[in-house]
Amino acid sequence: MSGCCGRRFYVGAALTVPVMAIAMGPMVAPHLLHGADARALAWAQLALTTPVFFWSGAFFIRRWWASLRERDTNMFTLTVTGTGAAYVYSVLAVLFGGSFPAAFGRPRRPLYFEATAFITTVVLLGRSWSSAPMRGQTRHQGPSRPCPEGRAPARHRRHRE
Questions:
Q1: For FRET with 12, which of 53, 84, 109, 158 sits at 20 to 30 Å CA-CA?
Q2: What is residue 161's three-state secondary structure?
């Protein structure tokens, strides 16, 4: 993995690991975060997940918007709609958790930052791995791009042998 996708994956993974530890750690080791301020941990998850979602997942968000605009649902629609809903709900729970209905859980609202960060990072890893073999197999197209973020060529040339 190289280029911008590799960098986005590695940064996303480095930020996702602590989010997963905060969110899932107490389930594995109950005394891991015992006594830690829940509000501070919620803000830490927000701070760590935001760059994963908006920077590491920027390619997915752009493709999601294009699929909505073109009314052509695909993997990006599913991925970003799900992770975006989890992110927006979690941000609202951190900012306005006290005004949520009691049915949403008291005293601590459930947060889904770990789902947003983990899914974004894993899908980015899958995209990077799935496009890696194709980069080495391009023919007559010049150097291939290191990341699927680039736009498609303006014109397709067909080469006959």
A1: 109
A2: coil
